[in-house]
Design brief:
Distance between the termini: 33 Å
Number of helices: 14
Helix content: 25-40%
Strand content: 15-25%
Largest sheet: 9 strands, mixed
Radius of gyration: 24 Å
Structural class: alpha+beta
Shape: globular
Number of strands: 19
Length: 520
């Protein structure tokens, strides 16, 4: 017979047997293992990092002139990072940043100076070296006044200057020397000044990090971090249950939540920004060059069913082409609510009374996979056969940027001002396959005038009105069909303390800082 004692009884027995013997001190755990929903990293050059996996990792490695306070996505809480202070001219066009002295690069690359900042921001603004160049179109000049002073001159006032300079997307500062020495290898051998440095990558297995001992905010409490690639949700759950990993990428799924919360001592973090998922429609490719077909697709999508399946704790119905937390968001935009009969009528008018078949390259990332399968079933009900062609997530990112799929279901969160999302996804300069490509998969160009005018509008109310007009035009043209807004989800064992109240993360995953630790 196998008898198990309660832990309290077992401990009492142990203490009774060794009452006079001193108990050895238990060393605090310092090695963290995370299970990620990915098969490998993509590009860790932060100015190209686009996938959730890559963006999570670059936020540990790199920093910006300023940063979002850990655990938040609130622009009002942006605080100093590499820059210890800054001044702005009365006309808002000249910004001067004073850098901290003595900040060290990882891997022995020396001190961070103004030269690195100038190099990084010029790279961020260069469409041949950055995916975020459009965010820096108003940056007329970036100068190193001295080794610890950077002056930025704008050609025009922009909605939020600190946004493009924060620890997010193009705002990350990289080592000029390391980038020039490592060349193309920099994407898998990055060098930043953040709290953790990447040491090795085992392709398809894990990325291995160690603490940046010279981190300017103090040596991290964690000594090592292993980021395991566990693309299978069931494999992640099993590893988590067995204690092989301390935290995992969660699923925006009600059943997953119930199973995970049933594990003793587990905490589930649900955090902003919610990723807005839009079904982008390439209006240049048949049959979607016909507005009626695009409208039919919009009416055929019942986003409430996707949201209900994924769970109200994480997901809500999206009703515009910018996220609801963005300055400038509006629901007064002509949003086309689900109407199966209307969808079928429009298909018949467009010459498809018996329906049609379309293909879509889809990501194998579990959150994408489940939503796309629901979408597939919905479209089938109105006569649209959606043939999914699943590929690994990093490969999917590459293929959709080559304009290889007429439909792209893409979830993303950006700096919470409407200009950023509208520019990257719906301005003609961002059309995929062009020299200035970002993520305009629909080839949309109907709101260029409003997007550009809003950037230079100094009256806040007029600026918001322009963003609202842009949304109406994009919805009317059916450049994309908004489906859901889904918050980020991670699960962790109770002894892991992120070091802050985890309510938000612009990197779309847990931010590791010098304060992240185990409590026992």
């Amino acid at each position: 017979m196998n008898i198990k004692f309660p832990k309290s009884c077992l401990m009492a027995a142990m203490l009774g047997a060794t009452a006079l013997a001193p108990l050895p001190a238990l060393a605090a755990k310092t090695e963290l293992s995370l299970g990620a929903g990915a098969e490998d990293i993509g590009r860790l050059d932060p100015h190209y990092a686009a996938s959730t996996i890559d963006r999570t990792l670059v936020a540990w490695i790199f920093g910006g002139l300023v940063r979002f306070a850990p655990g938040t996505t609130d622009p009002a809480q942006i605080e100093p990072d590499l820059a210890e202070s800054w001044d702005v001219s009365d006309d808002g066009l000249v910004w001067t940043f004073k850098l901290r002295e003595g900040v060290q690069w990882q891997h022995g690359y020396g001190e961070v100076t103004a030269e690195d900042v100038v190099f990084s921001l010029e790279k961020s603004a260069d469409p041949e070296r950055s995916a975020y160049a459009s965010e820096y179109s108003a940056f007329e000049k970036v100068e190193a006044v001295d080794p610890y002073t950077v002056r930025i001159t704008l050609s025009q006032v922009i909605p939020n200057v600190l946004g493009p300079l924060a620890n997010y997307a193009g705002g990350f500062i990289i080592s000029k020397k390391a980038y020039e020495e490592r060349g193309d290898a920099f994407s898998r051998q990055p060098v930043g000044f953040g709290p953790f440095q990447l040491d090795t990558v085992e392709s398809g297995v894990a990325a291995h990090f160690t603490a940046h001992q010279d981190y300017f905010r103090g040596e991290p409490e964690l000594s090592k971090v292993t980021y395991r690639f566990l693309n299978s949700a069931s494999a992640r759950d099993l590893a988590f249950l067995a204690g092989e990993v301390d935290a995992i990428t969660g699923l925006a799924d009600q059943k997953w939540l119930e199973r995970t919360l049933a594990i003793d001592g587990v905490t589930v973090d649900v955090f902003d920004p919610a990723e807005l998922t839009i079904l982008h429609i390439n209006s240049q490719q048949p049959p979607f060059d016909d507005l009626r077909v695009r409208q039919a697709l919009a009416y055929a999508v019942d986003a409430s069913r996707i949201a209900q399946y994924r769970g109200p704790e994480f997901t809500r119905v999206a009703k515009s082409v910018v996220p609801s937390n963005n300055l400038g968001y509006t629901e007064d935009n002509g949003y086309m609510a689900f109407d199966a009969e209307k969808a079928q009528e429009l298909l018949a008018e467009a010459g498809y009374p018996d329906g049609l078949t379309v293909k879509m390259i889809s990501s194998q990332l579990p959150s994408y996979e489940s939503s796309n399968q629901i979408l597939q079933a919905q479209l089938e009900e109105v006569g649209i056969t959606l043939e999914l062609e699943p590929v690994e997530h990093a490969t999917w990112h590459q293929m959709i940027r080559q304009d290889l799929s007429p439909l792209v279901s893409y979830g993303a969160a950006r700096f919470p001002v409407a200009d950023v999302y509208l520019t990257q996804f719906f301005h003609s300069d961002s059309i995929v396959g062009t020299d200035t490509a970002v993520t305009n998969f629909s080839h949309c160009d109907v709101a260029d005038e409003q997007i550009e005018a809003a950037r230079v509008e100094t009256d806040p109310q007029k600026q918001i009105a322009l963003w609202e007009e842009a949304q109406k035009l994009i919805i009317e043209a059916v450049c994309g069909v908004p489906t859901t807004e889904t918050a980020g989800v991670w699960a962790r064992h109770g002894n892991l303390d992120w070091g802050f109240d985890f309510k938000g993360s612009m990197s779309l995953g847990p931010l590791l800082t010098e304060k992240t630790r185990f409590t026992d």
